[in-house]
Every structure is written in C-alpha cells, then in structure tokens.
Design brief:
A 7-stranded parallel beta sheet has the order 3-2-1-4-5-6-7, with helices on both faces. Strand 6, helix 6 and strand 7 form a beta-alpha-beta unit. It is built from 6 helices and 7 strands, in the order E-H-E-H-E-H-E-H-E-H-E-H-E. The radius of gyration is 17 Å and the shape is globular. With 239 residues, it is α/β, with parallel strands linked by helices. The protein has a single domain, classed as NAD(P)-binding Rossmann-like Domain (Rossmann fold), CATH 3.40.50.720.
C-alpha cells in the first residue's frame, strides 16, 4: 500500500497497550481508524486520544470471543467509512498457572479470546478485505513458538494463532489479501496486571509495533513477511 491516506483500519483490543499504539501510528499516516474493546467507555476514551476528528476515528464495543459481535463491528465500520483495508487482530488475555491449577474458565477465556477471536475477526471482515485486496495481521507472541512453565493455556492459544495465521495466509493469497503474524516478546503494556513504568525502557514500546505495521504496509506488494518475531534489543540486566 503505497499511500495509506484514506485507507481504513480496524484494530481489536484497541483501547490500550499494543492496540492503541498501533492505532496512533496508523492515524499519523492518515489512516481512518476503528478500535474495539469489550467496554465502550474505554474504547471511546481511546478514540478521543487517537484523533479529535470524529470523521477519522470510530469506537466500537465488541467481544471478539463472539462472532456476532465482530460481524456487527465490521458492519458499523462499513456504515461509517464505506470500506475496510487493514484488519489487526490484537485482542488477547493471559492467565498463568501450573496446568493442574489452571481452571476451565481461565482456559476457555484464553482460547475463546486469543484463538477463536482471531478467527471471528477474520470471518467478519474477509469479504470486505477481498474487495480492497487488503491486509490481515494477527498479534501473536513469542509464546507462540516458545513454551514455558505456567503457560500451558497461553502457549496453546498463541501456538494456535501462529498456525491459524500462516494457514490463512496461504488460503487468502489468491485474493491478493496479505496476511502476517507478528510475535512480540516483552512489550511495555498493562498485560498480566503489569503497570508500565520507567523501568520498562528496555522493553518494546507499543508504538514500536505500530511502526512495524506501517513499514509492513509500505512494503513492495510482491513481498510478504508472513511471520515476524520481534524482541527487545537488550535484556533488562544490561541496562
């Protein structure tokens, strides 16, 4: 996509963290942005932070674990902007515990949001992306290839996201839809009850992921980085 002005993007989990960082970077490029989250108050506040222009930003309440929510969200985007060019499935949750202590509720919350959610978002938007020969991006994690203690449920969901996205990439190439999964390591967000602080300067910042997506969108159309691992350049111990 040589010129991003007037393109329309939809970012799930866009009220804070990585999603908000992506939305801000795209808005700086002139992209019209829709952000969603489970609580309208939060996404509305995020929308006002992204842009003061109501004609270029849209707040949508949607729980990605419910496909009908995502279909309704996409319908609202088309009603307001008339098209959809870029979809970023970013919404995610993490519950970390030994597998024998992980509850069924925690398991289903991660699978329904992290894994089923990316399917629901794509299912709701794919026909619009066919029209625009658009771009679908999932935000996975380095946990999608690297397992760790207390991560059984989270690993399962993110391994699934990576596999789903790569298979979807093959399915959608014939429609000239590009598909990429981005797998960040440590990012300075509120994820897992963390509070960002000055001690996080060594971590990836949300706007860094946003810039990466801008760079992806500007790449020559013949080239597709389909799976990207990204991690901090240094570890905390070296700061």
């Amino acid at each position: 996509m040589k010129d991003l002005k007037e393109k329309v993007a939809y970012i799930t989990g866009g009220s804070k963290g990585i999603g908000l960082g992506i939305a801000k970077k795209l808005a700086e490029q002139g992209v019209k942005v829709a952000v969603s989250g489970r609580t309208y108050k939060d996404v509305d506040a995020a929308a006002k932070e992204i842009s003061a222009d109501d004609n270029s930003v849209l707040a949508v309440e949607s729980d990605v674990s419910k496909c009908e929510n995502e279909k309704a969200a996409v319908a609202k985007i088309i009603e307001k902007f008339g098209r959809l060019d870029i979809v970023i499935a970013n919404a995610g949750v993490g519950n970390f515990a030994p597998v024998d202590e992980l509850t069924e509720e925690q398991w289903h919350q991660m699978i329904d949001t992290n894994l089923s959610g990316v399917f629901h978002t794509l299912k709701a938007s794919v026909e619009e992306l066919k029209k625009t020969k658009g771009y679908y991006i999932t935000i996975a994690s380095l946990a999608g290839t690297n397992f760790f203690e207390k991560g059984a449920g989270y690993n399962a969901s993110k391994f699934g996201v990576v596999g789903f996205t790569q298979a979807a990439m093959l399915d959608l190439r014939p429609y000239d839809i590009k598909v990429t999964t981005i797998m960040p390591g440590s990012v300075s967000t509120h994820f897992n009850h963390h509070t960002p602080s000055e001690d996080d300067t060594w971590k990836i910042q949300p706007e860094d992921i946003g810039q990466m997506i801008v760079d992806l969108l500007h790449m020559h159309p013949r080239t597709l980085p389909s799976k990207i691992e990204v991690r901090p350049a240094q570890t905390k111990s070296k700061q």
